[in-house]
Design goal:
GO terms for molecular function: RNA binding. It holds the Pfam family PPR_2. This is Pentatricopeptide repeat-containing protein. Keywords: Repeat. By secondary structure, the protein is mostly helical. The protein has a domain of about 100 residues: Tetratricopeptide repeat domain (Serine Threonine Protein Phosphatase 5, Tetratricopeptide repeat), CATH 1.25.40.10. Helices cover about 70% and strands about 0% of the residues. Helix 4 packs parallel to helix 6, helix 6 packs antiparallel against helix 7 and helix 6 packs parallel to helix 8. The radius of gyration is 21 Å and the shape is elongated.
């Protein structure tokens, strides 16, 4: 492995190498190895902390993500956009709406400008909690145009909580935004099917065929 090669050559875990190894393990879902690398690093910067926080946040390890975030702030390391993406992702998985609101507001205190990925996390958190009207208002008040991830998060919440009217309206916006994305049509069809509106679901599928939009089949390496 890359890590083993570095150790055999007695390469010290400086910032650049340590951060690269930790990031590699995080992206390969090897969080325990990433944490071991992190612990062995004699010096850490915002990249070091953020890689680990994001990894734990995306995988729903809420307590660990926030413990790292608190340690980071206590040690005087200023969080960046990746750090906040990690803690917001943790809030999504933990259903922590109030904490998500607090973290989102905290970004301004640290001079971090919210990006679409942060807005998508907030909408996802609100949507999963059933706060669909608040999520829609949040989108309407965004200083930038929402993308597919932001709108898709709201549609996902609508499906979970059975809000067909809002789900249909936002899904149509999604389709208008990216008409070639088959997943958006499928999402709308599923919302109709879940509500027992099978004729409407079939009409969506027919519309896909008329537009020559096809769903990409899944695949397996097994």
């Amino acid at each position: 492995s890359v890590h083993g090669w570095c150790m055999r050559r007695c390469l010290g875990l400086g910032l650049s190498l340590g951060n690269a190894l930790a990031d590699m393990y995080v992206k390969c879902a090897g969080l325990s190895y990433a944490h071991k690398v992190f612990d062995k690093m004699p010096a850490k910067d915002v990249i070091s902390w953020s890689a680990l926080i994001l990894g734990y946040g995306l995988r729903g390890c809420v307590d660990i993500a926030f413990d790292l975030f608190n340690q980071m702030c206590t040690q005087g390391v200023k969080p960046n956009d990746v750090t906040f993406l990690g803690v917001l992702s943790a809030c999504v998985h933990g259903g922590m709406v109030e904490r998500a609101r607090s973290c989102f507001k905290m970004m301004k205190d640290y001079g971090v400008v919210a990006e679409l990925k942060h807005y998508a996390c907030m909408v996802d958190c609100l949507g999963r909690a059933g706060l669909l009207e608040e999520a829609e208002r949040f989108i309407e008040e965004m200083p930038v145009e929402p993308d597919g991830a932001v709108l898709g998060a709201l549609v996902g919440g609508c499906r979970v909580h059975g809000n067909v009217e809002l789900g249909e309206r936002i899904a149509k916006k999604l389709i208008g935004l990216e008409p070639e994305r088959a997943g958006y049509y499928v999402l709308l069809a599923n919302i109709f099917a879940d509500a027992g509106r099978f004729d409407d679901a079939e009409r969506v599928r027919d519309f896909m065929k008329q537009r020559n939009v096809s769903k990409v089949p899944g695949c397996s390496l097994i």
